[in-house]
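The protein record filed below.
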Amino acid sequence: MIIVMKENATQNQIQDIKKRSEGLGCAVHVYEEGSHCLLGMVGDTSAINISQTEAEVCVDKIVIVQEPFKRANRLFHPDNSIIKVDDRTIGGKEIAIIAGPCAIESEVQLITIAKDVKLAGANFLRGGAYKPRTSPYSFQGMEEEGLRILLEAKKITGLPIVTEVMSVELVEKVTQYADVLQIGARNMQNFDLLKEVGRCNKTILLKRGMSATIEDLLMSAEYIMSEGNEKVVLCERGIRTFETFTRNTLDLSAIPVLKKLSHLPVIVDPSHASGKWWLVEPLAKAAIAVGADGLEIEVHYDPANAMSDGPQSLKPEKFEALIASIRVIAKTQRKIVR
């Protein structure tokens, strides 16, 4: 339920309705922009007398939210959320470019790639320290040593760190190093993990599960936000279909749909969507053209010998060319790539 206040509503009137609603057992989310104020009610709203509340002199109208996701709903927050990470933003006029290797293999490897992607135009550094792999015999990552290397790369380049957290037990450790915690596709519905990252003060990059609907993704975001952390970024990374030529099928339609339903920023991972390096650039350009707020791209200077996801990784010179090509596309969306 959303209570839309009149433009001339005073702070005392707003706070009075908020306190009364909380007294009836509702959590109340206040959204204020200029002279507009919305009160979003979450929880059991059955005790609220709708006709009596609507009759208040300071209330314009009441809107019933039909969708099960509330805090992530654009009705609760009409303007796009802009999430600040250090001196960077996700969801604003500047396209967020998250780039780096799938897995951290050594200090030399990560720092070399970090310098290359920053020079090309990346504004965030990605790198896997803990790696969820299909096979238990595949490289599982450098773990805490990898986190230490990420932090060293940040000191050198200034790029905020994006890395995956795989379990509830690792959240506290990863938050000591990372600026953005990534929830991978396989963990999108790990509800204990979602609730745990919802209690931390870090930006959360939530990837869509390979068989998840758009509503499933938004409900996972709701789990995080219901614990108090509203700094959530949604990521479309391809879904599993009957097609086998590509690793997954990039659902481009999900981007405008998510932007319509939710105020949260939406980025796209064309690397995991395609599984093929030569498809990354065209899919990245298409994603920006339909309104994505950013991209997450895997980069490696020696893909043939990469320990994880080499076939979908761009060499630094290819990544630089991609950045140059999407600058033109970004202008059509009134956005920029520095």
